[in-house]
Structures are given as structure tokens and as C-alpha cells.
Amino acid sequence: MLEILIHGAVSSAIYAMLAVGFTLIFGVARILNLAHGSFYALGAYGAYFFTSHLKLPLFPAALLAIAVVALFGIFVEKVLVRPMRSSQLAVLMITLAVALVVEQVLFLTFGSEYRNVPAFVDAKFTIGGVDVGGQRLLALGASVTLIALLWLFIQRTRLGSAILAVSQDPQAANYMGIPSDRIFTIVMGLSAALAAAAGILAGPFLTVQPTMWLLPIVKAFAIVIVGGLGSIPGSILAALMLGYAETIVGYLISTSWTEIVSVLATLLMLVIRPAGIFGKRAAF
Amino acid sequence: MFGKRIDYAGALGFVAFMAALPLVFGGNYLIGVLTVSVIYGIWAVSWDFMSGLTGRENFGHSLFIGVGAYTAGFLNTTFGFGGWWSLPAAMIMAMVFALVIGLPTLRLKGPYFALAMLSGAVIMQRLMLIFWEQTGGEEGINGIEPLIRSQLGFYYFALATLVLVTALLLALARSNWGLILRAIRGDEATCQAAGINVTFYKIASLVISAAFAGAGGAMYAHYQLQVSPQLFAVVTSITIITMVYVGGMASIYGPVGGAILLVLLTELLRNFGEWRLMIYSCTLILILFFLPNGLIAPTWRRLRYRLGRPE
Known about the structure:
The complex is a heterodimer. In chain A, 72% of the residues lie in helices and 3% in strands. Chain A is mostly helical.
């Protein structure tokens, strides 16, 4: 029972980190970013590359990886997505193409075998008779902290309120003197950094290989549909639901069935309440 | 009048060219490449009918292809049905899948459909690996019988199917039905206001598109004589989308040319093996930026204009 509670919390935390970034860039800039999973993969590969090839200590390597991915995200937004923004389909196409290019670059440079991302914490802890890897607990703690910080940043700072304003009405925000284009870039960087952090934190206990972007994007999509596109509280709640649902299914039936949970949730939600739990627009 | 005659002449010339190629150059290798290019043509044209016309991009066309191919594989090996049962069975199965995904997602506007199709294909690929005892896992299903023993015969069968499918979809696209689909692409709300049952047209088009994709999948299974989960992969869908973009979206005949052109080109780039997908993805980005109308359909339109002018 306690095992389900802890492991469910860990996977929920990782999902939440992915989904919050995915929903943030959509809510603010209306960009459905299919390259979001690539940021996650690049984060994990970045940590691997900087520690094993450049021999950096883990902590600076992780920070460097996050910074590089954030810059890459900004590049994608400014150079590739911006000229396409008038058409949502073109944005989907271009971000999917970016995701595939990233996959191919990773494949051509690192090959298809699994890579090891070093763990911050190697120790194992025992909580109430359940063995939990330290890295998992760290991932849980770090993601709760990061999401809380993001929440505070959006609610309490000037830049945060600018982001909120743009998410409500970019044009009106523009009239108030908020440069929405720059806000889009900042949010893309933030969202990419968050995804990269998720990749680095989850990398040690997941398989790191070039196609690792794909399932996270499917899950992030499921979470965001269940929670409501563009709603951060919704995606956190939905991440918890999906994380626990998968863990419970994994324990009760078999781990091979976990992949189906997310799709089933997506389809059910689209039938019952397309706007999601906290979504405002039924269909836009 | 004259324009139409040029179209027919162009189509006839193209089919004659495709039919003559293996006779002139011969060799099983060339026939194999041409067969694959023709099957990709069927997939591309079926993608374009739904997604090109209505503008609802389908990121999981591989779902229908895979379903068709696996249906053919199961029927042929596990249940021992003859090869010709595969085609109708594959079409029906693909249509069922199209209904299951289309009904909840196509009612909605926006990106739900594109993402749901992507997820659907990814999950089907995982399921094929998870239930490896039934599906053969990574290896897939082997030992499927060929439909037609002679390679050249199968190529002509595939080419005839492509011509038939293209003609049918082209006729549909130029009928009222196609007009409505294009109108949906332009402005869905206005169509609804005009009393058009938008959802019905979108779902029916997806079902038609899925049926032909499934048939193509079954043909591919009977050509490769095996199926693998790789058929469901996102790259299959992306390859098809790239072909459509190269050919020219919503032109129906363009994607056929795009598919054949790209398959033949990638055969020339065979030495770059590992770089193939990279080339596809980069082509897609470049086309999106510089040739949003594609390559083949605009070229044909210009050519037709030139030819038609002396009148």
C-alpha cells in the first residue's frame, strides 16, 4: 500500500513537470509543442554527455544541460515556430519535424543503445518497510519545489503577471505595453528548462535512448486533456491521477497494461468532458 | 474543356510511364522499389483525402496501415484464410479503428484529433510489443503468403489499385462532397450555420481514408511477406505527410507523385542509410518554409497553363 503511495507520487511528480511546461506554452502562446518530449530527452542526454564526455561534476553538468536546452527551446520558438504561428497545423508540423530531427541527431551521435545518466543520490532509503531509491525521492522533492517556484513566479512577480496577461489576451496585453513576442520566448525557455530538468531527474531510473521523447509527449497530452488544455492546476491534478492510476494498474494487473491507462483516460475524457477538469474552453 | 483533356493525357502518360518502367529496365530490384513506391502512393493519397481537404492533420496514419497489415497477417497465418480475404478484412478493421478514434475527437475543433491519432499509433505499437505472445513482438508475423506469385504481376496489381483509388478519391474530391470538405477547412462554423453536418463529413472522410490506408497496409504485408510493429511507428506517418507536402496538399494527384518521387530518390540515397530519416525531416522543414504549396501539383498546374495557352 505504502509502496503504491510512494511510487505513484514519484511518477506523478515527473509527469507533472512535463505536463506543466507543455500546458504553459500552450496556454500562453497557443503553441502545441510536439518537440516538448525532445526537450526532456535532450536534458537527459545533456547530463549524460557533460558528465561522461566532458567529465564535469554532476551538479554543474545538470545546470549546463538545462541552460542549453532552454536556449534550444528559445531557438525553436524564435526561428522555427514564430513564422508559422498563424496556422496551428503548421506549428504542429514544424514541432514534430524538430522532434524527429532531434531524435535522429541523438541516434547518429550516441547510437541507439541505452545510456546511463548518473544519479545525484545513490543511497537507498527505507520508509515504513518500503525500499525507495534516493534518486526517486530527490526527483519527487525537486519537482514539487520547481513547480511551486514556478507558481510563485507567475503569481507574485511582474514578469509573471505579464505572462498571465498575455495568456488571457495577447492583443490586449500588447496594447498595455507588454511585448507578447518576448513573453512567448521566455515561456518557451521556461517550459523547455522544466522538461529538461524532468529528463535529468528521471534519467537515472529510466531508459535513456533516442526515442524516449515519444511516450512522454503522449502522456503529457493525456494529462493536459484530462486536466484541461492551458490550465496549470488542472495538469497537476491530472498528473497525480495518471501517475497513481498507472502505478495501481501496474501493481494490480501488470506493468505492461500501464501504457493503456493514459490513452483510455484521454479517450474517455474527450467523450465525457472535452474541456477537461479545469479547462475553460470546450473546444477552441 | 481543353484543360481537362490535358489532365487526362497527363494521367495516362504517367500511368503508361510507370507501367513501362519495369519492362524497359527490368530487374527484380527495380520492380521491388516501384511496388513500394506505389503502395506509399496509396497511403499518401488516402491521407490527403481526409487531412489535406479538411485541414485536420492526421499524425497517426500509420495506425490504419498497421491495423490493415496485422489484419492481413493474422488472417493469413493464424486463421489460414486465403490472401484475397485480407484486402476487404483490412479495410473493415481500419474503418472500425477510424470510427473509434474519430467519433470522440473529430466532434471537437482544434488539435485534439492530430494528437489523439499520434497517441493512438504510439499505443498500438506498444501493444504489439506487450502482447508479443500473440503478435510476435519485435519480430512480428512471418510467413505471409504472396497475393500474386509473379513480382511483376503484383506490381501491376498495386499500380492498378493506386490508379483506381486515386481516380475514386479525385472524383469524390471534385464532387459536392469534396467541396464541403474544403469548406470545412475554410470555416467550420459557417458550414455548420449553413446546415451542413460537419461532424458526419469529417468522420466519414476519415473512415474512407482509413479504409484505403488499411488496404495499402494489407498489400504491403503481402508484399513484404511479414509485418512488424515498425509499421505503426510515427516515422511512417511523417514519411507520408512529407510526401503529401512535397506533392501539394489537397490536390489528391500531387501526393501520388510526391510518394513515388521520394521513394525513388531515397533509393538513390541508399548509401546514406542512417541519414534517410534526417533527410526526410529536414525536407519537411524546408518545404514548410519555402514551398508551402508543395512541388508537384504547382508544377503540373504551371505546365498545364503553358500547354493550354496556344488555344
